[in-house]
């Protein structure tokens, strides 16, 4: 069975930066004397070398899936008795969100000093990985290339190659995330693809997505924004969500459950990434209001921490709209606008409060909101004509556009 002691090396973009060491619920982070230019978290700057369990534990917890079934199956597969998230990290910590890798001593040489492996997969093998993610099953063969992705939606991380999909191992990073639909929510993948593409057409920075069918399983393929190609080799780029950056509990991601709201997110971004990041965040909140995005909590916004540039707001991801699922489906936002969570109750007074919370000019906020509302129906219509949309999706797309146009006529201040 697994030793309760945790002893891991922390690499950031392939460079040794720190160690994680301790027992059970007394684990600490110790930065190297020269950890490099990127901290593990904005909440744990390198100016202080030692960070206690209270700081590192919630940050690591945010790397794991939300689905308790998946965590239970992993504990069974890896013979981990401890329910503490730190106990799973030695088994799945080599490919997580951002540039950090958590590596066991016996794996350090292979990860640090040798090229990683690329394990080419057949469509059937990809299908088995997707099925394991959908059913919260164990990692199927090949057993290497284990990864961990946060969130509630079932997903896997793979490397896209010219000849198909592969499972990266060791130093090699994944490049794409393949997400399965949310159970019981018809057309959720269509909604995510259309919403993401519409946001991009409106000038918001977003991930690149495409719809696909792999081994009979519909997925949305998301290009990872925390990976980049440098001189022909894929590199990890560090990032963290805004709850991690604030040092918060990942279970408290919705504002009405104790998570960060607009004012806290804007203040954090202004302090670390500047005014442009705040403006980008504010426009994202406006967009989510216009599509009635109920899941736009602080963990669905992230900050990039590249080694060669200042921190910046990450491209938007996990954009889902409530509008296409029918009247009354989406009524309550993840973050309040001017103190109001109910979409239908947000008016001019709340938008004035929102501008104040973001530290932005009220007239700029109103003008931008009006422009987004005016352009959103056409952006959605264009997004619905993408070549990867199912041929029978036209009626659904049309209904989404009609619903958006009706809502936008009332959602922006006159």
The CATH class designation of the largest domain is: Mainly Alpha
Give the DSSP E fraction (strand runs of 2 or more residues): 15-25%
Number of strands: 18
Helical content class: 25-40%
CATH architecture of the largest domain: Orthogonal Bundle
Note the overall shape: globular
Largest sheet, if any?
Answer: 6 strands, antiparallel
Mean pLDDT: 91
N-to-C span: 64 Å
Task: Count every helix, treating DSSP H or I runs of 4 or more residues as helices.
Answer: 12
Low-pLDDT parts are: none
What's the domain count?
Answer: 3
From N to C, what is the helix and strand string?
EEEEHHHEHEHEEEHEEEEEHHHEEEEHHH
Write down the CATH topology of the largest domain.
Phosphatidylinositol 3-kinase Catalytic Subunit, Chain A, Domain 5
- Helix/strand structural class: alpha+beta
Q: Report the C-alpha radius of gyration, rounded.
A: 21 Å
